[in-house]
UniProtKB/TrEMBL annotation:
Residues 5-130 form the PhnB-like domain. It comes from Streptomyces aurantiogriseus. This is VOC family protein. Gene3D superfamilies: 2,3-Dihydroxybiphenyl 1,2-Dioxygenase, domain 1. Pfam families: 3-dmu-9_3-mt.
Length: 137
């Protein structure tokens, strides 16, 4: 897999509707995963979108999700830049450089969905998400 750089949008409970709208606009393949699919079945967030990804015929990738429980939604700052792929060395190198002099909100470590993931804000105030895909057994 080649590393990918794309916008990641955050929504205040309407990620499903927004991502379906963007699919109508750009066409392509839309995949949506809910919080319920990842251990939060009996919560008010169960049907909310934990991760959505639209890949278009033009080569665009747009990701988005509802703001997770415990995090505050802030209109105007509801985006991040996402780096993802399976090249552990390359992506960890980007992480080290991006987080240096900035702040880390989620340490780069293995997550409940099996990948290594972290969130940081670089020294210029730009939020980043890094996801390193792990081999599936």
């Amino acid at each position: 897999m080649v590393s990918r750089l794309n916008p990641y949008l955050s929504f205040d409970g309407n990620a499903r509707q927004a991502m379906e709208f963007y699919k109508e606009v750009f066409d392509g393949t839309l995949r949506l995963n809910t919080f319920g699919e990842f251990g939060q079945k009996d919560t008010p967030e169960a049907d909310k979108i934990m991760h959505g990804m639209l890949e278009t015929p033009s080569g665009f990738t747009l990701m988005g999700a509802d703001t997770p429980p415990g995090m505050e939604f802030a209109q105007g700052t509801n985006f991040s830049v996402s780096l993802s792929g399976d090249d552990d060395t390359e992506l960890r190198g980007y992480w080290e450089k991006l987080s240096s002099g900035g702040s880390v909100s989620v340490p780069l470590e293995k997550q409940m969905w099996g990948d290594v993931f972290g969130m940081c804000t670089d020294r210029f105030g730009i939020p980043w998400m890094v996801n390193i895909t792990q081999p599936r057994s």
